[in-house]
Design goal:
The chain is mostly helical. Helix content is about 70%, strand content about 0%. The protein contains six helices and no strands. It has helices spanning about 1-45, 55-85, 90-135, 140-155, 170, 210-260. It is rod-shaped.
């Protein structure tokens, strides 16, 4: 009688754990879509600015999230199938995939956090040099477009202020046609509007474009780090539930063999 009660209790626990895992995998699959969405959003939303950064850490973190999100969606679907079939081999593979994705997302979160710490220093060292030396230069079209979009999107002019353009290779050249700043600094862009650098005509923002871009990237990095680490922690819960489910299935198989 005691053994029968224990068997029924174990069956009840197995069924509850099975449905719990199924619900988890559905949420896990949806979470994968969120992770991938954040990665794509990071690259698409003002992704032109990546050419203004000295390192590729920011882009790498976003690409890792996209990869992890895709793996999460595939793994979540396979996890649902494995739970329904109750196959220990499939569940073991699913468990291994969870740990692998956990490591990938943890790396993305750590990269985002590390880069967040040195973001301000990199921008101060690199952005001013990029804008003054590479703007409107042959072969630097992507940087030129990025700077123009940066100044228009964030309503700023120059890395620190509009006077930074006085040291620009472009502004000193004949191609500038006596402009004091690029036309993209103007509040209303017209041909040669950069010849007049009065505050009524151009953006004069305290801290310049560095402050604006730093805040933008910092916000994105915090989201990347939070999503990466948050979903990674969620996966640990899934790994624990999967391990418990595998253990219960293993016990049931042993008991079945002992009854034969």
């Amino acid at each position: 009688m005691g053994k029968l009660y224990k068997d029924e209790q174990d069956d009840w626990i197995t069924v509850c754990l099975k449905y719990l895992l199924f619900v988890f995998n559905f949420l896990f699959w949806m979470g994968g879509g969120v992770v991938m969405g954040v990665g794509i959003w990071t690259l698409v939303d003002k992704g032109d600015y990546l050419s203004l950064l000295a390192s590729s850490t920011f882009a790498v973190s976003a690409y890792i999230l996209i990869l992890a999100g895709g793996l999460v969606m595939v793994t979540g679907f396979l996890g649902c199938c494995a739970v329904i079939r109750e196959q220990r081999s499939c569940l073991s593979t699913y468990f291994s995939c969870l740990l692998l994705i956990f490591l990938i997302e943890l790396v993305a979160g750590v990269l985002a956090y590390v880069y967040y710490q040195k973001l301000s220093e990199e921008l101060k060292e690199h952005l001013s040099k990029t804008m003054t030396q590479n703007y409107a230069q042959p072969g630097k079209e992507s940087i030129t477009q990025s700077v123009d979009r940066l100044q228009q999107d964030f309503k700023c002019c120059g890395s620190n202020n509009s006077y930074d353009w006085m040291h620009s290779v472009y502004i000193k050249s004949q191609e500038a046609e006596r402009r004091l700043v690029p036309d993209s600094c103007c509040k209303t862009i017209t041909s040669l509007c950069g010849r007049r650098d009065h505050p009524s005509n151009i953006y004069k923002v305290e801290g310049g474009c560095i402050t604006k871009l730093e805040q933008f990237l910092a916000d994105h990095l915090l989201i990347i780090g939070a999503v990466g680490i948050g979903v990674a922690c969620l996966q640990l819960v899934g790994a624990v539930l999967t391990a418990c489910f595998i253990y219960l299935l293993y016990k049931e198989e042993e008991e079945d063999y002992s009854d034969v």
